[in-house]
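Reopening this ticket.

The earlier resolution said the output was attached, but the attachment link was broken on my side. Pasting everything inline this time so it's all in one place.
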Amino acid sequence: MANLVFIPGLLCTKALFHPQIDALSGEHHIHIAQTTDCDTIDEMVHKMLAAVSGPLVLIGLSMGGYVAQEAARIAPTRISAIALLSTSARPDDEERKRQRHELIKLSEIGRFKGVTPRLLTRFLSKTALQDEAMCQLVMDMAAEIGQENFTKQQYAIIARLDQRPYLPSFDKPSMVLCGMVDELTPPHLSEEMANLLPQSELVLLDEIGHLSSLEAPDKVTNAILRLINRANL
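Inline output:
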């Protein structure tokens, strides 16, 4: 049985991966990385590595993908395979940093509840936005994370490394997946990562937005299973 570590994205909890956890928990050990109460991506990585012994398969979405890439950079011998969902290897440009600082300011003046609806249209595809249960799930996750952790996560994301110089050194099975209508991390960013990783599978999903694990649960689960098989776990 493999140690699968699911790493949630910004404002997300383990509920982000409920479909995959339900499908894979019978055959593998499931762990959830701690992404709260951390000021940096590095802190998230070290807490994750300390919490689970042995080789790991990392499955990170968005911010979780930043954590997975940093773990592969600093502790490659611990990582058997990585799945990078709806994420990027690039650091924020100045415009994205400005947007993040704006959202932090809104949250700090008591408008945190207004942040999530503003982000919701970028988290989900137009089709998924018609799914009331999915929208409520995203809102509930954000409420659980809360304003303080939202701010910490945003600052951690702003300060992250450019991982592009390091990805070619990770010569183990990897899977890069993205929705074709993902506005936050568009498909060309996944194509870039897949081209840099020596043993990558690129998965692009039509009509799927940023929260791919929720919008296309079966396709994401199947891609993870292929990754596990390629790693002989």
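Reporter confirms the inline version is readable. The beta strands are 3-7, 29-32, 56-61, 79-85, 174-179, 200-205. The longest helix spans residues 94-123.
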